[in-house]
Amino acid sequence: MMKTIEANIAGETIIKNSRFVTYLYRINENSDVSLLIDLIKEQHKNANHYCYAYIINDVKKFSDDGEPGGTAGNPILQVLEKNDLNFVLAVVVRYFGGIKLGAGGLVRAYTKSVTSVLNHCSLVQLLDGYSLTIEFDYDYLKKVDYLLKDINVKRKIFNEKIRYEIDVDKNLYDIIKKDLNISLINEYEKLVEEMDKK
Hints:
The chain is built from 5 helices and 10 strands, in the order E-E-E-H-E-E-H-E-H-E-H-E-E-H-E. It is α+β, with helices and mostly antiparallel strands. The chain folds into 2 domains: 119 residues, Ribosomal Protein S5, domain 2 (2-Layer Sandwich), CATH 3.30.230.30; 71 residues, Alpha-Beta Plaits (2-Layer Sandwich). It is elongated.
């Protein structure tokens, strides 16, 4: 079961005088990656390396950013993969402390940096599903509320008609669509968070 982080988080680790500052971001689009890395570079202008990895659906990418090949980006990615994470960007900023760590030491350092921050993170499970906006007349309010009694309604808007914004998994989607028999608007596929937090 795929998971993502509940909220963005950061942490710091010192290994043999080198400072490793790790950021975990929840992201939805590839375009978010370069924006966030640019922000981090602005915050840490004097750092030596900005190594990262991310997973968005089936897209997985990483960068060693000047560290020896395979010693930074790939270890970061492996931590994300081992924890079944999706829609996550991990960036580790390194300030060189004057002591060379060697290839094995770098792999361990980058792995430890991401793992230690991840250990302080709340995770949520992801389910395949839909994000829906449903619109209906006031006459349907009791019926709709009854049918959605076990579903979290993210937003309720009361104007000339009532509008609810909900997330549902694929199993419930067909039942809701059939039972409600009312107009569904702004319907699009996405990964939906399960309410049980891990």
